[in-house]
Amino acid sequence: MSQIEAVDVEISVVLGRSVLPMQQLLRMGRGAVIPLDATEKDEVWILANNHPVARGEIEIRDDRIAITVTRTADVYDFMAGQA
């Protein structure tokens, strides 16, 4: 195995964002719902080690959730909070 193949990369998917006052966040308990600035049709952000690398679409396959990569990510859009 080459050294590159031995490197672990953490993949995260960001569905949306929300801005809440700290007081509201502290009052939330189990089962609380946090509204996001996204709809079910919006692309998601795909992050590698917390760095945006791609955009994708959510797919439901049987009882599993999958992400289809649709395009590369624009880091400036991610930092600006754009969808």
Automatic annotation (TrEMBL):
Pfam family, one: FliMN_C
The UniProt record lists the keyword Hydrolase: no
Cross-referenced InterPro entries: FliN-like_C, FliN_T3SS_HrcQb, SpoA-like_sf
Keywords: Cell projection, Cilium, Flagellum
Source organism, top-level taxon: Bacteria
Domain Flagellar motor switch protein FliN-like C-terminal: from-to ranges: 3-72
Gene3D superfamilies: SpoA-like
Family: Belongs to the FliN/MopA/SpaO family.
PANTHER family registered for this protein in UniProt: FLAGELLAR MOTOR SWITCH PROTEIN FLIM (PTHR30034), YOP PROTEINS TRANSLOCATION PROTEIN Q (PTHR30034:SF6)
Protein's UniProt name: FliM/FliN family flagellar motor switch protein
Organism: Brevundimonas terrae
